[in-house]
User: Which sequence fits this backbone?
């Protein structure tokens, strides 16, 4: 038996992807990133991973979750507790533990998954907010409103850039593979019509559980990395509704249901947020609200849709007949 | 026993407010099949409107009811004409309308923040602290007034829906919009009116809450979720069901104080929301809300 190159992955796409990851990996040395940019790019990696994972549920399956902060926070606090209990343990194990617990928590949300559309979304608001209150109250675990401090040195903080990049690369590759595989088609079928999907043997229950669990686990891992990066976490922030909204906004801005829309959206979101919080903190929410309204009304695929629209004339120009008669 | 009566009375008073919040959300969903996520934002806007009218013009919050209702009605009609009308209908419109109205909510919150800062506000009148003796417990005048208005509102709503031409048209559109076009009902006009009425009810609920609670631009998210519990639990198209569901929610929330630490009582509503959606999606009385 020999290993074959999977048909669903075009070699050129794989090459471009590998080149991109390598370029980002060497960027801090080649470009000599300032601490400010280093910090921003690291955060962008974590947010991109989260947005990509949110998109599996919100984009591929079409179940918009307003409660992913529950998994993000849980991943963060489990990782923090593991690191506090056993500081000599390698940090990645703690992050994985956070991801596992978050994934299990998402599986526990199984009963809500039979709800569709707005009902699922509203239920996730309930789950998210209940989680925030319960974990803020559970001081033995989360330290309550005074939060937890993690034993992270500055060296580890610096190296989190590459851990974040690794997570993002993994999740991006997974997004691409899911989209291109049979699984992606099955999810698309569920999104288009649950009953019709069931008729052809695609069980919405099973695939939603699977995707929600995976999505929750990835968001949990990124929460763990986030906790390590800031070395201080507080439940009202980690479980906050604003964080859940963030995942929604990033994906919708970039292009919901597309493979690389969430990447684009998360980068724009992080940069815009940084800019707004620095210069116009009072317009922060409203601007995102307006962006959301405009995207839904005029370009439901967000920035990806905009790029596609812009590239169409360009491509037509590139594909023009070679022997155009010259005047 | 005395404590029990205290709690029961405050549960009944709270139920009136919850029911008022829920009518608007239920009406809009029933007719347009759109979950109005901006509902919480409008509740917040109603609260600030009452606060401004009382603070700068000196109008008593209960006398400003017609004005607040009218302004919210206009806001709702504008929201429908400018935004909601353009959304795809049916299954495809689900997430889109949710996200769009969520965007509206964020904008409303930001506007309130810009105009009034993030500080907590409250409407204080000369009778804010006055109370009456009911069933042996002291009940604030404000809460009683809110209960009375909460009882009058559904009666008026019922009158409108059952006995007016417009109301009949609204109910007909809720049942089958296509047939309404055939018999000459201007469906778009009915949608606009319904969205306006639903929003007006949210504004009223906001004004009423403002006389009892303090509020800030973030006010309304808990109210939105509670309205949703009441709508799902009570079933659509039943004013009585809405009232009973509001009472159930209020009783559970108020009596949770006996068994839960006070900090967690606000989580009760959220947990109930999920439980109701999962176990009783058809409502208490079997009117199926979910399509």
Assistant:
């Amino acid at each position: 038996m020999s290993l074959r190159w999977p048909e669903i992955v075009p070699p050129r796409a794989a090459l471009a992807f590998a080149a991109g990851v390598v370029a980002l990996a060497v960027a801090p040395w080649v470009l000599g990133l300032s601490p400010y940019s280093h910090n921003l790019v690291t955060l962008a990696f974590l947010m991109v991973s989260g947005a990509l994972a949110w998109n599996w549920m919100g984009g591929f399956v079409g179940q918009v979750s307003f409660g992913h902060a529950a998994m993000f926070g849980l991943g963060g606090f489990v990782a923090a507790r593991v690191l506090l209990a056993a500081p000599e343990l390698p940090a990645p194990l703690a992050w994985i533990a956070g991801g596992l617990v978050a994934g299990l928590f998402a599986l526990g949300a199984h009963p809500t998954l039979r709800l569709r559309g707005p009902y699922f979304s509203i239920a996730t608001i309930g789950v998210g907010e209940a989680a925030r209150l319960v974990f803020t109250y559970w001081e033995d675990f989360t330290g309550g409103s005074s939060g937890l401090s993690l034993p992270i040195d500055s060296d580890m903080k610096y190296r989190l850039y590459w851990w974040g990049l690794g997570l993002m690369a993994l999740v991006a590759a997974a997004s691409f593979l899911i989209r291109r595989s049979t699984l992606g088609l099955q999810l698309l079928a569920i999104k288009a019509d649950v009953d019709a999907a069931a008729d052809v043997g695609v069980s919405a229950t099973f695939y939603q559980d699977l995707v929600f669990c995976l999505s929750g686990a990835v968001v949990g891992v990124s929460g763990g990395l986030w906790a390590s990066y800031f070395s201080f976490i507080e439940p009202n922030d980690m479980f906050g509704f604003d964080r859940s909204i963030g995942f929604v906004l990033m994906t919708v801005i970039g292009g919901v249901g597309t493979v690389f829309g969430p990447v684009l959206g998360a980068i724009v979101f992080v940069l815009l947020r940084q800019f707004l919080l620095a210069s116009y903190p009072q317009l922060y929410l409203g601007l995102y609200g307006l962006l959301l309204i405009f995207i839904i009304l005029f370009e439901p695929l967000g920035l990806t849709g905009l790029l596609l629209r812009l590239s169409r004339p360009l491509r037509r120009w590139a594909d023009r007949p070679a022997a155009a008669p010259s005047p | 026993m005395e404590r029990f009566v205290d709690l029961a009375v405050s549960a009944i008073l709270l139920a009136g407010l919850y029911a008022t919040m829920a009518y608007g959300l239920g009406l809009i969903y029933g007719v347009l099949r759109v979950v109005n996520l901006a509902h919480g934002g409008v509740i917040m806007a109603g609260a600030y409107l009452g606060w401004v009218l009382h603070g700068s013009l000196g109008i008593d919050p209960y006398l400003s009811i017609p004005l607040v209702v009218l302004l919210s009605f206009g806001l709702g009609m504008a929201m429908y004409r400018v935004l909601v009308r353009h959304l795809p209908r049916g299954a495809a419109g689900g997430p889109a309308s949710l996200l769009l109205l969520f965007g509206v909510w964020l904008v409303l919150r930001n506007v309130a923040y810009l105009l009034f800062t993030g500080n907590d506000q409250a409407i204080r009148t000369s009778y804010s602290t006055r109370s009456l003796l009911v069933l042996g417990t002291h009940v604030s005048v404000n809460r009683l007034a809110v209960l009375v208005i909460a009882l009058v509102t559904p009666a008026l709503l019922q009158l409108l829906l059952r006995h007016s031409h417009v109301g009949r048209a609204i109910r007909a559109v809720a049942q089958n919009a296509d047939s309404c076009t055939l018999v000459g009902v201007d469906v778009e006009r009915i949608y606009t009116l319904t969205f306006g009425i639903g929003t007006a009810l949210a504004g009223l609920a906001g004004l009423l809450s403002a006389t009892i609670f303090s509020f800030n631009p973030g006010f309304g998210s808990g109210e939105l979720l509670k309205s949703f519990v009441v709508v799902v639990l009570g079933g659509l198209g039943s004013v009585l069901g809405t009232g009973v569901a509001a009472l159930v929610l209020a009783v559970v929330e108020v009596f949770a104080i006996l068994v839960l630490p006070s900090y967690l009582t606000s989580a009760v509503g959220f947990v109930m929301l999920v439980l109701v959606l999962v176990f009783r999606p058809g409502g208490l009385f079997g009117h199926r809300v979910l399509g």
About this structure: The mean pLDDT of chain A is 87. Chain A has one domain: 40-278+286-306.
